[in-house]
Design goal:
Layout: H1 3-18, H2 22-49, H3 54-69, H4 72-97, H5 105-122, H6 128-157, H7 161-179, H8 220-237, H9 239-249, H10 251-256, H11 261-288, H12 299-309, H13 314-337, H14 343-356, H15 359-365
Length: 379
């Protein structure tokens, strides 16, 4: 293939992404919807196979809806759970767009959360207008620097980012365990690994306490929406975003066009880590108020599924984050109201990802939901 043809192929690929046709719309929207439907059906069949009767299955799915969107408290819990999932998912999606597989959001989230906690209890007397942004910035910077390690090693040595980020996850788990036992971090009078509490001036304020003091939704949801807008703008309205997408669509053509592949890898990984670090800060400053071992609760791993379900598009990631937040909030209600194991939610999430990863299978199951490809006329 000639250099001119290579450039033309890259340009055509990017134009298709900028103005997706019907087929791409189906992949972005229709396939995920059908994947969720199939996952719910198979979830019901799984319950049948484990001797759960039909009335209980119906009751459990009704509880799932009620626990996620059936009341103001349910909506609050759904949005609270969706915020960190979306932030971390945005970081992973950014890497996917640039052709990088960032599996390290869990570790980046832990490191960012620890930085936010330390900043949050370290400056008594600081006004909220300074203290809260400072704690959020600390989380983003720490997560970005931690992910940047993997980016730099990939650019400098060619080591694969999947292996690097998995190893960095393990390091982050042990690093958090170690730091939580340091005297200046551990809460006074406690022998177990738990950090000091974040000062009030560094907490993310709750939004609807004037309606109900028990509503946990906090300002982190606004931060999440702002991050979605920012990532969308960067990806589709800036030169840097174009370089990210060009590098993911055609690395060789991008290098030929003069883009510095090594620098782009480091920048993408740092940006992804910053978003995951913000997710960690969101949790400790808005929900937990402190850090404990494993305070991430697997959010960084669930965010991989969110990015996949959202097809690495910022608005798709937001929708997927809301769905997974609803499953988490509704799953607790299922367990209480219908007595169904919370593990069922994990099964449903896994099934969703399985079908998202196999769009041809979804098209085969629901052929009527997709437009048939036009046949090429014979010459």
């Amino acid at each position: 293939m000639s250099e001119r043809e290579t450039e033309a192929g890259l340009a055509e690929s990017l134009l298709r992404r900028a103005a997706p046709d019907r087929s791409e719309f189906e992949d972005l929207v229709i396939v995920p919807i059908f994947a969720v439907v199939v996952a719910l059906i198979l979830g019901a069949l799984t319950m049948l196979a484990t001797n759960v009767d039909l009335p209980t299955i119906g009751k459990s799915y009704l509880a799932l809806v009620q626990g996620s969107v059936g009341s103001l408290n349910a909506l609050s819990e759904t949005l609270t759970a969706a915020a960190p999932l979306t932030l971390a998912g945005l970081g992973i999606a950014l890497g996917f767009r640039a052709g990088l597989f960032n599996i390290g959001a869990e570790g980046q989230l832990l490191v960012g959360g620890m930085a936010a906690v330390i900043t949050g209890f370290s400056f008594p007397g600081l006004p909220m207008a300074i203290h809260l942004p400072l704690a959020l910035l600390a989380g983003a910077v720490a997560g970005g620097l931690y992910a940047g390690i993997a980016g730099w090693l990939r650019a400098a040595t060619g080591a694969h980012e999947v292996i690097l980020t998995i190893m960095l996850n393990l390091i982050a788990f042990r690093l958090v365990d170690y730091m939580l036992r340091l005297p200046w971090i551990q809460r006074e009078g406690r022998a177990d690994p738990i950090s000091r509490s974040v000062l009030t001036s560094a907490e993310l304020p709750r939004i609807f306490t004037w309606l109900d003091p028990n509503l946990r939704l906090h300002l982190g949801i606004v931060l999440t929406l702002a991050a979605v807008l920012l990532v969308h703008w960067v990806l589709f309205r800036t030169k840097l975003g174009f370089e990210f997408r060009a590098s993911g669509a055609g690395p060789d053509a991008a290098r030929y066009a003069g883009m510095r592949a090594g620098l782009l890898i480091v920048i993408v990984m740092a940006c992804a880590g910053a978003l995951a670090g913000l997710a960690g800060a969101n949790q400790v400053l808005g929900v937990l108020g402190r850090a404990t071992p494993g305070f991430s609760s697997g959010i960084g791993f669930d965010a991989i599924a969110v990015a996949l379900l959202g097809r690495s598009h910022p608005w798709g990631v937001l929708a997927a984050g809301l769905l997974f937040g609803a499953l988490e909030a509704g799953g607790r209600q299922m367990q209480v109201s219908a007595g169904v194991s919370i593990d069922l939610i994990g099964i449903i999430q896994a099934l969703i990802i399985a079908f998202i990863a196999a769009p041809l299978l979804v098209r085969a199951i629901f052929p009527w939901g997709f437009r048939r490809a036009a046949k090429t006329p014979k010459e």
